[in-house]
Amino acid sequence: MRGVARSLALLALTALALTGCGNGSGDGAAGGGGAEEQTVTVLAAASLTDVFELIADDFEADHPGVTVDQSFAASSTIIQQVNEGAPGDVVALAGMGSLEPLDEEHRHREVAQFTTNSLQLAVPPDNPADIQSVDDLTADGLRLVVCEEQVPCGTATASLFETLGITPTIASYEQDVRATLTKVELGEADVGIVYRTDVTEAGERVLGVDIPDDVNVINTYPILAVSENSLAQAFVDEVMSERGQAHLADAGFVAP
Question: CATH top-level class for 38-116+220-250?
């Protein structure tokens, strides 16, 4: 009987050991070698699309088990979504004015000004309308596309027109700066007013025509945590870090 009891005890210990191994394996699969799976959701202005993908890659590499879930849209759309309860941990916007409508309940940390951007004219590579300067924006028959005025690029464009003292004919108003640029890339517009960084990112798909500094508009970009997720401020810190700022500089952004 003692032999039977001993055999049963060994079987019980073996089953317990196997159960323990099973739990450890499951944790490793879920968390990437024991790291806890977490997500930080970043809502960012359309003009930040490419550079924030690079910053997110760095952040994920430094935080095993963490995924950066990003969504890009017009800054005004982002603030509306957050105020209406859309999930998000960080917002990064194009223009300080965009931040004003954000409800106080979503301001979980201090606002940081992380970069600046300025306007530039984008024309198709063959420049069919022969756009040489802002003086050509009032030419007859010109297909000029701009951002809707409620988004930062559109607000800056309206300010530019006011400074220049012109009221050009607008062929279409686009939902954000990337949509404006796309119209030019597809040859559906003779010129679009976008950010300098968008022209840089587009490469050979468009040509850039500079706007004189004395009339150009500079937008300062704010970023802040809009949730209590501990990773939110960590992502903000990554954007503000030397590495994050280097990515922004490479993309044509200028430090504030």
Answer: alpha beta
What's the chain look like in SS3? CHHHHHHHHHHHHHHHHHHHHHHHHHHHHHHCCCCCCEEEEEEEEHHHHHHHHHHHHHHHHHCCCEEEEEEEECHHHHHHHHHCCCCCCEEECCCHHHHCCCCHHHCCCCCEEEEEEEEEEEECCCCCCCCCCHHHHHCCCCCEEEECCCCHHHHHHHHHHHHHCCCCCCCEEECCHHHHHHHHHCCCCCEEEEEHHHHHHHHHHCEEECCCCCCCCEEEEEEEECCCCHHHHHHHHHHHCHHHHHHHHHCCCECC
Distance CA 102, CA 163 (A): 28
Domains of the chain, residue spans: 38-116+220-250, 117-209
Q: What is the mean pLDDT of residues 176-196?
A: 97
**Tens-place pLDDT, residues 191-239:** 999 999 999 999 999 999 999 999 999 999 999 999 999 899 999 999 9
CATH topology identical between 38-116+220-250 and 117-209: yes
Kindly report, residue by residue over 204-213, the tens digit of the pLDDT.
999 999 999 9
Taking the alpha carbons at both ends of the chain, their separation in whole angstroms is 82
Other C-beta atoms closer than 10 Å to the C-beta of 213 total: 8
Residue 30 confidence (pLDDT): 36
CA distance 115 to 221: 5
> Does domain 117-209 correspond to CATH entry 3.40.190.10?
yes
Q: What is the model's pTM?
A: 0.81
Q: What is the largest CA-CA distance in the chain?
A: 105
